[in-house]
Design a protein that fits this description.
Elements: E1 16-23, H1 32-45, E2 50-57, H2 63-77, E3 81-85, E4 89-90, H3 95-100, E5 106-111, E6 123-124, E7 139-141, E8 143-144, E9 148-152, H4 153-161, E10 166-170, E11 173-177, E12 182-185, E13 192-195, H5 197-207, E14 212-223, E15 227-228, H6 232-243
Parallel strand pairs: 1-2, 1-3, 5-14
Antiparallel strand pairs: 3-9, 4-14, 5-9, 6-8, 7-14, 10-11, 12-13, 14-15
Amino acid sequence: MTKSKKPKGAKPLPPRRVLIATPVAADASLSIYYVDSLTNSFRLAAQQRVELYPVYLANDVLVQRARNSLIAIAIEADVDDLIWIDSDIQWQPDDIFRLLNYPVDVVGGTYRKKTDEEEQYPIQIRGNSIPIDPSTGLLEVDGLGTGMLRMSKKALQAVWNDPTSKKYRNKGNIEKWICEILLEPTEEPDVFEVISEDIVLCHKLAALGFKIYLDPLLTCNHVGLKVYQGNFAEYLVKLQKANA
């Protein structure tokens, strides 16, 4: 009697490879709050079938060049996602996986700016419209700080292959000038506004057809002389009432 063969099960999907990109200040130091958050996220990664690869780029006085080098590393490593996390950010262990689970290409959390004068967040919203995506609960924005921002492989490859990004040589490597600081004119004659490299990155992604999303429930802590805490969801309610 011939024994029937058991059907072979489908092979398990390979782990999702995620590069944690962190440009570090000139003193090459990481906040202990950052280290603690990353350590706790590693503990959850195996359960989520995610492999985290933190890359720290220190001692570059030009943060935009450091970000461009990190993009080049992500492209070379062919990772599935890149998540920008600044070295002065504190987050909850599952925040990384929350961003990875959204079915969008560019999404991030936010954090309060390091000021006690007024509650501010590094978010660019033009006009009075604050559209929420009903299917995801995400807020569509024009620009978002890269202190906690995820880019899919598709978004990474798009900005890397963008013909408007010039090639340059950095320590023997060919990289692309993607993140840059720009000056934009204002309503005042001969007065310009400085646009940071993270907002410029968002604008370039938008020009390539990507929507920039913010999870309004994901507010990180921002570490300076003290830990700056915020609650963007509550701030958003105030903003919506002001614009009503």
